Amino acid sequence: MSDPDIHVRPATAADISVLLEARRGMFADMGEAQAPGREEGEVRLATWLAEGLADGSAGGWIAEDDAGRWVGALSVSHEQTVPSRHNMSGRQSYLFGLWVRPENRRRGVARALVQAATAAARDGGEGAVTLMASDHGRPLYQGLGFVPAPAMRLFFEPEGSPQKGER
User: Fold this and answer.
1) How does DSSP assign 38-103, residue by residue?
2) Cα–Cα distances in Å, from 38 out to 44, 48, 89, 152, 162?
3) CATH fold of the domain at 7-143
4) What are the backbone angles phi and psi of residue 61, rounded to the nearest 5°?
5) In what order do the strands lie in the sheet with 91-100?
6) Nearest Cα to Cα of residue 58 among 17, 89, 19, 7
7) Which one of 1, 5, 118, 151 is most buried, counting C-beta atoms within 10 A?
8) Each residue of 8-63: pLDDT tens digit?
């Protein structure tokens, strides 16, 4: 159930600071606010978002209350991946940085943001939507039809960054 006083709209270049603040809030909630490399990563993300919002390869969604204050946000990367039987076009959205202000939680804000992003992906011809789910967020995503996938990642560590296991 979504709060009728909350409205979701696409992010614009003017919202980059909101998308970054939401991502900081997400990492703080996960206990990773001070992780090494976070500041440099945010500078790079801001540049990437600006370029992506301009060329359509990135986007986001902003949830606002009736007074126009943002209460939640979600970032999106539009990607091309390998076509498969589940996604013949290979086009997909990757959702990240979902965060809702604590005082606005349990009001359907996160659900509304994810639904806006998935509807836009479907309507835009993308064949899949992916994300990394926290234990806390997993029930929301599963309730929206997301299923676990057996993906794995290998990160190449830049010199001077934390070694595996220190994240």
Assistant:
1) HHHHHHHHHHHHHHHHHHTSEEEEEEE-TTS-EEEEEEEEEEE---BTTBTT-EEEEEEEEEE-GG
2) 10, 15, 33, 22, 12
3) Aminopeptidase (3.40.630)
4) -135, 140
5) 7-10, 58-64, 70-80, 91-100, 128-131
6) 19
7) 118
8) 999 999 999 999 999 999 988 888 767 667 788 899 999 999 999 999 999 999 99
Which residues sit opposite 10 in a β-bridge? 61
Q: How confident is the model at residue 65 (pLDDT cuts 50, 70, 90)?
A: very high
Task: Count the neighbouring beta carbons within 10 Å of the beta carbon of residue 113.
Answer: 26
Q: Give percent of the chain above pLDDT 70.
A: 90
Distance between the two ends of the chain, CA-based, in angstroms? 36
pTM for the full predicted model = 0.87
Name the residue type at position 60.
G
64 to 9, 24, 130, 146: CA distances (angstroms): 8, 18, 24, 25
